[in-house]
């Protein structure tokens, strides 16, 4: 288990508990970008351990992955990226602006 994902998952659980304000949480939807540096499977694994004896105990976890996309600052082309080091497929430039894929947030919370 990666300590990074454990810390991230603990933070997510804390955010959910704050929002739940004492109510039981039935389901959690997370938005997780492919460039966020977090492995969804690891978060799902840590989640089960982190929700024990919290308002989230027994809650369902839904992880929505967000693919990475970027826009070239030189030719304005928009394209899919897998990492921050991907070049523009149209002009070969490296000056790209990340549009999506960095998301790492609680999208939805279903409470009792
Ligand atoms: Zn370009």
* Widest sheet, order of strands: 2-1-6
Distance between the termini: 31 Å
- Structural class estimated from helices and strands: alpha+beta
* Structural shape: elongated
Give the overall average pLDDT: 95
What are the secondary-structure elements, in order, as H or E? HEHEEEEE
The CATH topology of the domain at 3-67 and 101-111 comes to hypothetical protein PF0899 fold
Low-confidence stretches: none
Please report the total strand number as a whole number.
6
Annotated CATH architecture of the domain at 3-67 and 101-111: 2-Layer Sandwich
Q: Report Rg.
A: 17 Å
Number of helices: 2
Hetero groups in this structure are: zinc ion
Query: What share of the residues does DSSP label as strand, in percent?
Result: 25-35%
Tell me what the structure shows:
There is one protein chain. This protein is 26% helix and 32% strand. 25% of the residues are buried. The protein has a domain at 3-67 and 101-111: hypothetical protein PF0899 fold. α2 links the parallel β1 (25-33) and β2. The mean pLDDT is 95. The strands form 2 sheets. Strands 2-1-6 form a 3-stranded mixed β-sheet, covered by helices on one side. It has a 3-stranded antiparallel β-sheet with strand order 4-3-5, with no helix packed on it. The chain has 112 residues and is of the alpha+beta class. The chain starts with a helix and ends with a strand. It is elongated, with a radius of gyration of 17 Å.
What structural keywords apply?
3-stranded mixed β-sheet; 32% strand; binds zinc ion; alpha+beta; 2 helices; hypothetical protein PF0899 fold; 3-stranded antiparallel β-sheet; 112 residues
């Amino acid at each position: 288990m990666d300590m990074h994902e454990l810390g991230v998952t603990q933070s997510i659980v804390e955010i959910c508990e704050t929002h739940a304000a004492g109510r039981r949480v039935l389901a959690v939807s997370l938005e997780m970008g492919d460039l966020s540096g977090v492995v969804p499977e690891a978060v799902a694994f840590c989640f089960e351990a982190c929700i024990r004896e919290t308002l989230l105990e027994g809650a369902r976890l839904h992880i929505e992955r967000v693919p990475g996309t970027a826009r070239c600052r030189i030719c304005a082309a928009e394209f899919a990226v897998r990492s921050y080091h991907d070049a523009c497929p149209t002009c070969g430039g490296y000056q790209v602006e990340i549009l999506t894929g960095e998301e790492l947030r609680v999208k939805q919370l279903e409470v009792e």
